[in-house]
Amino acid sequence: MADSFVLDSALQGQEGLALLERAHQAGEPYSLAFVDMRMPPGWDGIETIRRLWQVDPALQVVICTAYTDYSWSETIRQLGSSDNLIILKKPFDNIEVLQLAHALTRKWQLARKLAARMWDLASEVERRTDELRTAEARFTSAFAASPIASTIQYNYNHCFLSVNPAFLELTGQSMGDVIGHMPGELELWPEGKAWLDGVSRGDRLRKHPAKLRTRDGRLRDVLVSTEPIAIDNDACSLWLIDDITDRLELEQQLVQSQKMESVGHLAAGIAHDFNNLLTAINIYTEEALHECQPGTRLHDDLQEVQAAGRRAAALTRQLLIFSRKQFSELAPLQLAEVLDRILPMLRRLIGEDIELVSEWDSGLPMILGDENNLEHVVLNLVVNARDAMPNGGEIRLALRQTVVLASQTARHPEARPGQFLVLAVADNGCGIPLEIQQQVFEPLFTTKGSGKGTGLGLSTVRTIVSQHKGWVELTSSPGAGALFEIFLPAAPVGTVLEATGTAGAGQPASDRHRGTERILIAEDDDVVRNMLAVLFPRYGYQAVLAQDGPDALAAWEKGGGAFDLLLTDMVMPKGMSGIDLARELQSRQPDLKVILSTGYSAELLQQGTTPPIPGASVLLKPYRPDSLLAAIRNTLDAAAAAS
After folding, report:
1. How far is CA 438 from each of CA 45, 213, 430, 434, 467, rounded to the nearest angstrom?
2. d(CA 208, CA 195)
3. pLDDT, tens digit, for every residue of 233-246?
4. Mean pLDDT of the chain
5. CA pseudo-torsion sign 281, 283, 286, 288
6. 3-class state of residue 333 by DSSP
7. pLDDT at 67 > cutoff 90
8. Which carries the bigger pLDDT value, residue 56 or residue 135?
């Protein structure tokens, strides 16, 4: 058993301390020391043990003594109570000493292992604590920096423990208003009940749609997600509140745009075909009027047909504007002067039981606008205002100048900063309920009775205003009337009015429209083609008619190309448009004059890959006989003058 121990000995306490210190420095500490109580001059056993324990408190000590100057109680008082101290009385048995040595060294080894394990555990706890602090710091940083509104709330009453800046920005609240308060105190969830109860029970939410009320009373569309967590043994939840209001508005705008485009294609097709029919109706009617005696019943009836045709032409123009196939032709104008010119007509239109009040600010800037289309906007709004006041009332027209700031653009999706002219049309009629105020601008939506509205008025108004790079704002409530405000951008400083000539407009066809020239007509609509076959010979023209592009090329070859003018519809079948036909014939006869006719609009000239025909005139359907004949005469006479 002696081989199990490494033994060192010292004659005196100082030597023993030196051995202990060297062993510690070498990393090989002693596990057990046998110390005699009485030793040669110097330290006694008590002093030696005290010094040894100062270096190594874990050292196991056996006091070996036959006689001592200290009682056990005095020894304990001197050294302190310790589990590492045993007294062995001399004489002692060798076996007893060995057993004691084995037991104490085993105890020392176990104590060292326990101390090492405790140190490892303490290190692990410290590491885990540091990780927890780091994770908590990261969570706190991410929580505060998250762009999604986030909160931590108790489950049982939803009281706020913590909120991030994004939540405060979304709700308009301050930190002091929120922390320690419940959502009900802030009136955050006007529609919440069942889903809030679920969160109270610890349910998880995933992107639950809800309405959130901000401090200023606005409602925002949000998606709410919650995750149950425990804080200080309290059941809580982490809330994520994603504001999707702007996203939904963009989606609604996209749906509205797609709806407008689909209905617009349909409207454009209807308007095109209708314009062809109206062209024939209007020309036949006017020609018949010339041959009727004024004052007769037939003459009066034909005038009614003529008036109906003009109203139908206005309706097709409205369809084309709505479908964006008829674009506004913008030119500098003073809107106040335009309104002054149509005020008498508006007063006759609304009747005597409604007062029309107008007021314009002085020094108003000009705008870039289409006079006819803006008159149409005012007419639509005034008629709607009249219909909203069946028992009479007041309509106010106002013009003012304003500057829209960047901070004010949130009030309308199309608003933008800048200088604008505001046209306001207000009435004190029945008003418009909030829930349908967005619908009133949709195509074919009307609140009027059957046969009293087309549902295109306000959708056309919005289309025209959009073409003028402006927008419409509506303010109304039931019983409080309605206010429509049209924002139109002011023209750049230095814009001047353009002079326009209108002499001779609307005059009936006469001898000055007659001619003898040879005209090639390409028209795919049978009604229009047959009407032109009757009209042109009456005024001396030699007309050759074709029903499409290839047919016109065949007629050109047959006639030897001896034509003075080509009158062609722009959109024709069999893969050859009017522009394609004109380009082909001008390549054969460069001086050939061209008039392009369409039931859509002149804007089609700018579409597609084929460029417009240089020098070509454009005639929009439905046209009147005098307009058609004047266009032909002007085109031919201009060519003669140039030569």
Report:
1. 102, 21, 17, 8, 19
2. 8
3. 889 999 999 999 88
4. 81
5. negative
6. strand
7. no
8. 56
Nearest alpha-carbon partner for 379 in 321, 436, 333, 432: 321
pLDDT higher than 80, residue 199 = yes
Tokens representing residue 80 in the block: 């302190």
Q: At what angle do helices 457-467 and 371-387 cross, to 10 degrees?
A: 150
83 or 501: which carries more pLDDT confidence?
Answer: 83
> Tokens standing for 546?
């074709």
**Do 222 and 243 meet the contact criterion of CB atoms below 8 Å apart?**
yes
Tell me how far CA of residue 98 lies from CA of 92, 238, 263, 271, 497, in angstroms: 11, 66, 108, 119, 124
Residue 59 Cα to chain centre, angstroms: 77
**What's the CA angle centered on 596, arms 595 and 597, to 5 degrees?**
115
Q: Pick from 256, 316, 313: which is nearest to 438 by CA?
A: 256
Identify any residues that bridge with 568 across adjacent strands, giving them in sequence order: 522, 596
Largest CA distance in the chain: 162
DSSP secondary structure of 535-561? HHHHTT-EEEEESSHHHHHHHHHHTTT
What one-character-per-residue DSSP string does 294-324 give? TTSHHHHHHHHHHHHHHHHHHHHHHHHHHTT
- Bridge partners of residue 69, in order along the sequence: none
- How do residues 85-138 score in pLDDT, each as one tens digit? 888 887 878 888 888 888 888 888 888 888 888 888 888 888 887 877 777 777
Q: Which of 172-181, 461-470, 594-603 bottoms out in mean pLDDT, i.e. has the lowest?
A: 594-603
Q: Which two tokens stand for residue 496?
A: 């001047």
CA distance 238 to 337: 62
